[in-house]
Amino acid sequence: MIPTRASYRDIPLYSPAKKPCRVDLSDNTNLFGTPPAAERVLRGASLRAVTHYPAGYSPDLRRAVAAYAGVTPEAVATGCGSDGLIDCAIRAFLEPGEVLAFQDPTFVMVPLYSKMNGVKAAPVPLRPEADFDLDVDGLVATGAKVIYLCSPNNPTGTALSRAAVERVVEKAPGIVIIDEAYADFASGPGFIDLARTRPNVLVTRTFSKAYGMAGMRVGWAVGSPRLVAEVEKARGPYMLTALAEAMAVAVLTEDQDWVKARAREAVENRERLRAELVALGLKPLPSEGNFLMVPLPGAPKVAERMRERDVNVRAFQGLTGVGDALRIGSGPWPLLEAALAALRESMQ
């Protein structure tokens, strides 16, 4: 018999239902191509980046993120995607049995990280009647030592109000993690300023979405140097390759115009997609991300029929405050046209 942790027995593997499809709009990545600077670094990489360990965590990447975020390098942690840093933060600030509170629905990995780290999950429903804003009092009432927020939220696409986030930060008894994986698509400025000015705020971002580097798995977090030092303890060594770090530095310092242009196109196409979905009688939720959440009874079956037509979207069943729904990523318009055609056929 193989010894296993009892607390792990009911943890499912993260494995979204997926088969190879010609059009894949299921994971909200950048479908507009590779950033030019990243491609240049990749093509010019030396074998040393393969045969040698990276030199710890790249000071060049920390400096580049610090300059971008308006903080000192000591206020920056880098890691294997922003999700990896969120996992590290949960591990760093919570003992087994302590409480992690989070908005519901939100990023699917957060309740899994709570189980993996032996902490108690306290999901607090968002408020559909208030554009899916936070239940501030509900979050604070959990007494959680760590509160996780996500804005723009995955999977709903909705943004949290500034007033609600600031109230959570003010009232929270401990750390507030703000996941901004989709901030590059949002119309507002985000919450990095809170990480600069509040000692209990950690903001995470990723190179996997707008920056077109999902396969390289690079993320970053900013907060007070004291918070960041604790996250780094939980992170461990060598979670980033030298090549991924070099590509991230190049994109962050050289390709901002490219990233912003692709993000604008994703948002423009998202709104074109919204209009087409409304014409079909559907009611997509407001979105500040590069995707739309579309409530639709029987969404899993519809998604299955769309996959038969070579189009992959993400289906959710019984989502809190939403019900069954499809999450459709944005991208080049021809891909969205193909998705619309498959959806029309699959809804018949």
UniProtKB/TrEMBL annotation:
PROSITE patterns linked to this entry: AA_TRANSFER_CLASS_2 (PS00599)
Keywords for this protein: Aminotransferase, Pyridoxal phosphate, Transferase
GO molecular function: pyridoxal phosphate binding; transaminase activity
CDD domains: AAT_like (cd00609)
Entry annotated with the keyword Ligase: no
Sequence ranges assigned to domain Aminotransferase class I/classII large in this UniProt record: 23-328
Cofactors: pyridoxal 5'-phosphate
Pfam families: Aminotran_1_2
SUPFAM superfamilies xref list: PLP-dependent transferases (SSF53383)
Family: Belongs to the class-II pyridoxal-phosphate-dependent aminotransferase family.
PANTHER family xref list: HISTIDINOL-PHOSPHATE AMINOTRANSFERASE, HISTIDINOL-PHOSPHATE AMINOTRANSFERASE-RELATED
The protein, known as: Aminotransferase class I/II-fold pyridoxal phosphate-dependent enzyme
